[in-house]
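Sequence in, structure out.
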Amino acid sequence: MLVRTVVLAAFALTLASCAGRMPDRIDPAFEAPYTLDAGDRLRVVVFGQDGLTNSYAVDSAGKITMPLIGAVEARGKTTSELSGLIVTRLKGGYIREPHVAVEVEAYRPFFILGEVTTAGQYAYVNGLTVESAVAVAGGFSPRALKTGASVARIIEGRTIHAFVPLSYPLRPGDTITVEERWL
């Protein structure tokens, strides 16, 4: 009887490993608002100030450099937070009542690794999911785990990992790892 129970338990574990890994319960921090980082290109509009209205790239230090006010920290900020910071800096002796709008003109790329045909860096487009990212990378390799993927996302300076379903929406800068299945 004991041998039969052990054999059944081993068989159940083998079947469970074949089924693949199930997606994690996603940490609420993983769903935090999108924040800017190096590689994003922004359109900053200062109403009534054509000399300040322009496209600005977030540099490797996480800043944009604007006329009059110089370098402004963009890393880790939402577009509305950056807009407020620019307003504050412009009020400091340059423009009496500045009105500023910031929007993302081009997002930084995402990265995909592991069991895909062509791993690498790809341009981000709105509405990208794990499944569409895999398609952009040429599809799954024959050994790929097809129930989900691991996503690494930087939030408030920390890298957070989660195993997510294929329908999960991605963000610019995410690193997707398609794992290898065991059987």
